[in-house]
Q: What sequence folds into this?
């Protein structure tokens, strides 16, 4: 991975000046490389990782395992793209293993997520089964530790 892209992936809030210093480039060169990466579709967006304790969201997040019957001449792609277009879906991935698609859904409450699964997701032709898991607590997201680091408690050693 390009060193500029690696730095931006780790911290997209770095200033052009900071990036230029870290990469031994001019600020104009950094701006040009960022514009080029955006134009080529390499950089698709920027997001902040928010603390659960500070943000006032009482919503829920669910991880849903979805099994599909692949379509002729399309495999899983058309169904996965259809699922990904729902507003409730924040992420959608093709997986290896015991299920085909992993869907991450955001909802205001458990009932809203359950309604999405039963009324929208499960009714799509080609969806053969779903398994929903609710996220209870995030510890690390995209390489960032959340909620502060707790000091490791050492156990007493006895003979």
A:
């Amino acid at each position: 991975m390009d060193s500029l892209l690696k730095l931006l992936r780790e911290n997209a809030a770095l200033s052009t000046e900071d990036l230029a210093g870290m990469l031994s480039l001019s600020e104009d060169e950094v701006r040009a490389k960022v514009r080029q990466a955006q134009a080529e579709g390499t950089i698709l967006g920027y997001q902040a990782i928010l603390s659960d304790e500070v943000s006032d969201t009482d919503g829920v997040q669910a991880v849903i395992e979805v099994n599909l019957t692949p379509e002729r001449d399309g495999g899983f792609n058309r169904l996965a793209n259809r699922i990904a277009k729902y507003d409730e879906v924040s992420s959608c991935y093709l997986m290896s293993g015991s299920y085909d698609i992993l869907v991450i859904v955001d909802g205001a409450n458990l009932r809203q997520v359950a309604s999405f699964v039963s009324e929208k997701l499960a009714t799509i032709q080609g969806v053969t089964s779903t398994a929903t898991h609710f996220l209870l607590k995030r510890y690390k997201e995209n390489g960032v530790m959340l909620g502060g680091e707790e000091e490791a408690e050492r156990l007493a050693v006895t003979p």
Notes: The mean pLDDT is 90. The two ends are 50 Å apart (CA to CA). The longest helix spans residues 27-40. Strands lie at 60-68, 89-94, 101-107, 127-134, 140-141, 144-145.
